[in-house]
Amino acid sequence: MISLFEELSAKLIKNPRLSSRSGARYDMILLLFNARDAIYELWKSADRYLQTSDADALAHIQENVEKLRSIFGARKEYYVDNSKHR
Question: What is the mean pLDDT of residues 75-86?
Fold first, then answer.
């Protein structure tokens, strides 16, 4: 399974147009913009841990990784049977 980030990155490689206001580039912009606080918190926690090796900073890293798992973690495949809704 690939992550949402990896899927959008692969689509960007296939179609790297800068002028489009839709598609993978726009989706990636929205995705990262909406995750900016969690990304920044992860960076701060990692920086603090590297400077201090503090267990509390490591716990914050783990918390922030979990916040970002829906974007960067592998997605689980699931099947939805829409034939019943017709």
Answer: 55
